[in-house]
Every structure is written in structure tokens, then in C-alpha cells.
Amino acid sequence: xxxxxxxxxxxxxxxxxxxxxxxxxxxxxxxxxxxxxxxxxxxxxxxxxxxxxxxxxxxxxxxxxxxxxxxxxxxxxxxxxxxxxxxxxxxxxxxxxxxxxxxxxxxxxxxxxxxxxxxxxxxxxxxxxxxxxxxxxxxxxxxxxxxxxxxxxxxxxxxxxxxxxxxxxxxxxxxxxxxxxxxxxxxxxxxxxxxxxxxxxxxxxxxxxxxxxxxxxxxxxxxxxxxxxxxxxxxxxxxxxxxxxxxxxxxxxxxxxxxxxxxxxxxxxxxxxxxxxxxxxxxxxxxxxxxxx
Length: 293
Known about the structure:
Elements: H1 2-12, H2 20-34, H3 36-39, H4 41-49, H5 54-77, H6 79-95, H7 104-116, H8 118-121, H9 123-131, H10 136-166, H11 173-188, H12 191-214, H13 220-244, H14 250-276, H15 278-284
């Protein structure tokens, strides 16, 4: 929450900008501080499928990569439809961040606020970013449709939070603080910066901390190695793909490669978390209710 508020202040003081160098910096932050949380999928897979032999590991890696490739093929065949589904899926995935909040609709609204709130004050910049990933005209239409929905989601969030907090539901001041801070971040800060801060220092950091408790039998060194090795492989892959793209479109290429990679990894990542019941563990285990400030 603190980092979200600090980012809002710094952005309005002009400390950050949207030059090519700042885009490179933000993409680098996503790569080194956001992508690694997915590297722990190897531990979740080992638990979910009892991977205790080389054959089983090879089968898992083959299936995981096949799912990732299928995602990219779907994106190439039906880019706009895929992108809409990806945004909705991401919102539902982010909804789990609030943990044991009740009713669950507030978590869902939280996730959709993260996706849609940038369309209110930064619609042109958001459309430009989306236009790097899909047809620009389609991107403009998606953002224009997203705008009224964002206002509805925000209004529902405020009303339901007030109602259920007064009714002593499973919503506390920490939940309210995070909803307010993240909503303000997504509303007031430029889209790529807002996403970077949320994804890296809230979503990903929280996942790593919770995973540390979940895999308590592993040492910090073992977890660190698990984080680093797959991340380096993904990084080398991204660098290789980036080299094949037109050199004059640096910003576009950086965003395209980064978000295509995130999309390809998000679906198998979410499947593994669901397979082991990670969300259920978060809701029922006190150490799973870790918040990221």
C-alpha cells in the first residue's frame, strides 16, 4: 500500500516519465521482479503431480510449454478476442490477492478495477499500449467499452465495501486500505508504471512470500535457486525474440515481447495454483494471509 501511494506522489512530481529509457526501465523491473514469481511453478508442479523422476519432469515441461505455445497461437489467430479474454482472466487471477475477503465479489471487483481503472484518465495512453499488442483500432474500441464498466466497477466497490464492512463481514481495514491504494494507483498513475508497481511489488512479492510459507520445508537458498534458474531461461528466450523484431520500434517490441511472455505463462501458472488448491490454503491458513505493503 505504501509503495502504491509513494508512486502516485512521485509520478505527479515528475520523477517518472514515458521516454524510451523509462519504458526500458519498467520492462526490466517487470522482468527481474515480476516474472520470477512464476518460476516457483516448478515447486507447485512437483507437489501437484508427484514429479519424482526425469520422465515425469520431461512430461510436465512438455505439457507446460505446449500450453504456453497454444496460448501464443490463439493470440496470433484471434488477437482481439484473445486479448479480451486475457484481460478478464488476469482480473480474476489478481482477485486472489486479497485472500480471505468476504464476500468474494469484492475480490473480483478489486481484480477488474486493476484492469479497467486506467481507462478513465489515461484512455489514450492505454489504447496506445494495447495497440502494440493488437490492432490499434480494436484497442481503441476495447478501451472505450472498458471506460463505462470501470466506473460501474468502482462505484460497486465503494458501495459494497461500506455495506459489508458495517455488517462485520470478513473484510477488514487492511482490505479497505489495499483496495483504496491500488485503485488510486491504477486511476491516477500512467498505465505502464501503475501495472509495473502493482504486478512486481504487490502481486508478485505477495505470491513469493506466501509461497515461502507454503513450501516451508525448503530453505531460503533452495527457493532462491528455484526463482533464478527458470527466470534466466525466460529472460534468454525474450532477448532472443527481441533480437528478431524491427530495431526501430524499441518501445513496441519491449512491450510486445514482455506481455506475450506473461500471457503465455499466466494460464499454466494459474492452472497449477488451482490444482494444488493454493487459494484455498491462503483463505484457511493464517500465514497465507500475507499482505504486501
